[in-house]
Specification:
The protein is α/β, with parallel strands linked by helices. Helix content is 34%, strand content 20%. Strand 6, helix 11 and strand 7 form a beta-alpha-beta unit.
């Protein structure tokens, strides 16, 4: 590394709040979030005026919500001055930052839809492009690709959030993070994670090889303590490696499953194999990815609420739902400068969980593990709603299953379900276990009892030498007459 790059790296590290939190504290993520609130109180007179006091004291949930409302008003004023999209939308709605005094007032602010961002990304850009350090595009899995703009400070915020999340799993600066994203994904999160670790002063190694022997060699040589990667990729390596290697001998502290849902069936299989906690991580590219991570209690994912506000709305009415009620997640970026998004619809289904948490977090809220996209649900039989997670929990608990896909057709008045299952082991035994797991589901039994489902078909296939990420779990080929 050149002298210039070393100086830039050293300067960047001075701006990371996560480096000011001791590695020895019980909850690094919680302490990091609280430190960011304290820094805002110290530096910004507007926040002190909003609270109406000169000393902060202990940060309870009410104080934290006042911090979020202050940041929301400040961000709203920023986009109304700099974003053509928000200038027009908020102008037409007749809404101003000073109108937002309580959490209930957020319902007054119009929602931002992903289609708006996809159609006109430059209308969200708040700065000249000369001040933009990086541009990211989403993969477009839910529609058109969306373009996001990040300043250098935005990128440092993302790095800071990643570092705090990794430390919350127990990773120390002297230990190695093993990054496991296959090279065939549309964009490579490994590069971002590796760069983030360098800036944050954390050790990491990238291994995207589908070869199990190579993965294990790298882990053993580097004395890996935490793994992060694509959920299905880590699981595939787990299934293929557990009969060849003593995975528990590595002494892992945690496995972080990212970019795809983590079913409880898959979690159980991986925890049994590796002997450590398997944690879920969830984020949106539009919010910089590093937004939530599960703690060891595993009852929800803690949010980086210093930089993001999360609401849950009724997807049909758009009205905010109370904590604990399931609905659609809506996100606001409280700190981004490049193309900040306010009340941005995710179409992901979850719930908000108020603190405290058994892990020790007293101010930082959680979301329930997302069930998936609202538009990922479909109906069978008597109108039973099914999400991919329904079959994940049933099929993936069968020992030896690596992946599956369901094709839905309707050759007659009955629905026809054809499952293709990638399996490592005795094929006939595996087929019987998978079929039993599917037919034991209440949604399947009910439809079969009412003669609205054909007999379930299960086709087993050998383990592929190639890995295909994000294989769509449900393909609905039925003609729809209700749309």
């Amino acid at each position: 590394m050149s002298l210039k790059k070393r100086i830039i790296m050293a300067y960047a590290r001075t701006k990371l709040t996560s480096r000011k939190v001791s590695e020895d504290v019980e909850n690094p993520l919680h302490d990091w979030v609280q430190l960011k609130v304290r820094n805002t109180f110290k530096r910004e007179e507007g926040f002190r005026k909003a609270l109406g006091r000169d000393s902060l004291g202990d940060i309870d949930r009410k104080t934290f919500e006042e911090y979020q409302l202050y940041k929301f008003r400040k961000q709203m004023a920023y986009v109304m001055e700099n974003s053509p999209f928000y200038q027009k939308m908020y102008g037409e709605a007749g809404i101003r930052p000073e109108d937002i005094r309580t959490m209930a007032d957020l319902d007054k602010v119009p929602l931002t839809d992903p289609d708006d961002l996809a159609e006109e990304p430059f209308l969200f850009l708040c700065l000249s492009q000369s001040k933009i350090s990086r541009t990211f595009s989403t993969s477009g899995t839910s529609g058109k690709p969306k373009r996001l703009f990040y300043t250098s400070d935005d990128l440092l915020n993302i790095v800071d959030s990643i570092a705090a999340a990794l430390r919350s799993t127990g990773l120390k600066s002297s230990e190695t993070l093993h990054i496991m994203f296959p090279a065939v994904v549309a964009w490579d999160p490994s590069l971002m994670l590796e760069s983030a670790c360098k800036v944050a002063g954390l050790k990491s190694i990238v291994c995207s090889d589908v070869n199990v022997d190579e993965q294990m060699r790298v882990m053993q040589e580097q004395q890996t303590k935490v793994i992060i990667g694509l959920t299905s990729f880590i699981y595939r390596v787990t299934v293929l490696a557990r009969d060849k290697f003593d995975l528990r001998s590595l002494g892992l502290k945690a496995i972080i499953c990212s970019s795809e849902p983590l079913s409880e069936a898959v979690r159980h299989e991986m925890e049994e194999a590796w002997g450590c906690k398997c944690l879920s991580q969830y984020g949106l590219t539009e919010m910089g990815l590093a937004t939530t991570i599960e703690c060891h209690v595993q009852t929800g994912l803690h949010i980086n609420e210093a930089d993001f506000m999360v609401e849950v709305i009724d997807p049909d009415t758009g009205k905010t739902l109370p904590p604990g009620e399931e609905g659609e997640l809506v996100w606001t970026s409280l700190s981004f400068q490049g193309s900040p998004l306010l009340r941005y619809r995710s179409y992901d289904i979850s719930k908000f969980i108020v603190p405290p948490c058994e892990c020790g977090h007293v101010t930082v809220g959680k979301i329930g593990k997302p069930k998936g996209r609202r538009n990922a649900a479909t109906k069978i039989g008597l109108g039973e709603h099914i999400f991919p997670t329904l079959f994940d929990e049933a099929i993936m608990k069968v020992h030896g299953v690596l992946n599956y896909q369901l094709v839905l057709t309707k050759p007659s008045f009955r629905d026809h379900l054809h499952f293709t299952v990638e399996y490592n082991g005795d094929m006939e035994k595996g087929r019987e276990e998978v079929l039993r797991a599917i037919t034991d589901l209440e949604e399947i039994r009910s439809s079969m009892d009412n003669d609205l489902l054909d007999p379930i078909e299960v086709e087993m296939k050998e383990v592929s030498l190639e890995f295909t990420p994000k294989m769509k779990p449900i393909i609905d080929q039925r003609k729809r007459f209700d749309e």
